[in-house]
Amino acid sequence: MRRHRVVAKESGIVNLPETGPTDVLSLRRRLRDYATIGRELFLQRIIIYSAAIALAAGYYDWRVALFFYAMVWVAEAYDAIVFKRILRWRGRDVATARQLIVEIYVGTALSATVISLFSISVAVQQGHTTHFMPLFMLFSAAIFAAMNNHHFISVLGLRLVIYVAALLFIPIRDLVAVQPPMSSELWLQFLTVLFVLIFIMECARNFIAGYMRNLRHIKELEQEHEQTKVAYKAKSEFLATVSHELRTPLTSIKGSLDLINSGVMGPIPDKMKMTLDLARRNSGRLADLINDLLDLQRADAGRMEFNLELCDLGVLMKESVARMRPIAEELKVTLTCDVPEARFWTRADRKRIDQVITNLLSNAAKFSNSGGEVRVSVEDRDGMVRILVADDGIGLPREAHDRVFEEFSQLDSSDQRKIGGTGLGLNISKRIVEAHGGVIDYEGELGVGTTFFVDLEAAAPTDRSQTSQAA
Residue 194 falls within a domain, yes or no? Predict the structure, then answer.
């Protein structure tokens, strides 16, 4: 059984459980909810109080009404100070939470007492008769409290006890003073008050039950979120560890294969050339996979670094095409690029944008038919520089847009799919482009071909002129 500690022994009204970090956060949320609603309803309360005070001043003693109006503002000023302290509190210490709850109790007792005494004063001035105005004010205040002060049951209970005491005092005072027969409307008034009290208690119970249900749901969601964060962290650490552990032996294997294929260690027998070439290609694919996993892990962790500098996309495109041309030729695909230099300037990380272009060229070549063509171009477009990579391959339908840029996504996920790959290239490319403030998208139609484009902000003319002068 959980132990409870008494917050204020003198009053005996604040009992809080031994709280851990989660309990303190839940308590802080309830405090903030209470203070936020209290602030939001300030104008509404003042309008209601002002109207009631104005009626009392017009029909009864204006001096009494003015006194209670001043007391209302005192109570509101105190609440405003407490609300401000609650909303500025960012700590997790139980001692502060206790102090704030005690201050809420004081403010609750003060405001409820002012309203109750004001209603009783109106009833006294009315004499021994039916008291519609003061009883209605107390009834409205009780319902208002049940709707908006249900964050702490004991706080709501204190407010309702004060209102109920006033509601009962007004008709009982008349019954004791007049001692009317049961047929008198004074008895009817008393019995009506009893009925109204039952209604108030039921309303309070429903609002409290609803609020506590919401708190439980929020706590369950927070626990699920924490579990998800733990699983996500474990996944990220696993990816990072496995990728690094694989990278070291793979680098050695790939270096050895490159050394053998170069002929430095002697001529390669004809029977071994095909096998060694296959091993070289697959070691390269495995290296690309590991690099993609590392990039994905860095992007998820927000640790992908960018070194922005002024660069000419025309030069960058030609370099990427030249590097990819041998791979395209192996796939019997032609790469065409006619991009002028010293024209398409932007501020970007050369290495990362080259990675994006290489991904697009690789996909275009792999998904093109044998004998096909991949066309590369760059153009100015409304203050942006647009890179275009077009192919006449199998094409992509527009309805597959969301899946195209997902992690590990392949539109053909069957075991017999012709094209290999991890499905990470476009997802990583999208993250890189968006980190530059750009956009990556495509236009295409199934069976016709696809054109991927990347829009990056063009460099300012002053930046370009400074680069030209430096050259």
Answer: no
- Cα torsion at 413, 419, 421, 424 (round to 10°)? -70
Of the listed ranges 231-235, 237-241, 369-373, the one predicted with least confidence: 237-241
Say if 15 falls within a structural domain: yes
From 157, 179, 201, the end of a domain falls on 179
Residue 408 falls within a domain, yes or no?
A: yes
Does residue 260 lie in a domain region? no
424-443 pLDDT tens trace: 778 888 888 888 889 998 88
Output the pLDDT for position 465: 53
Pair 174, 323 in one domain: no
Which residue, among 457, 413, 458, has the nearest Cα to 435 in the 3D structure?
Answer: 457
Indicate if the pLDDT at residue 325 is higher than 90.
Answer: no
Cα 73 to the center of its chain, rounded Å: 38
Q: Provide the mean pLDDT of the chain.
A: 79
Contact criterion met (CB below 8 Å) for 445 and 397: yes
Torsion of CA 39, 40, 45, 51, to 10 degrees: 130
Among candidate residues 130, 155, 179, the one where a domain is terminated: 179
Into how many domains does the chain fold? 2
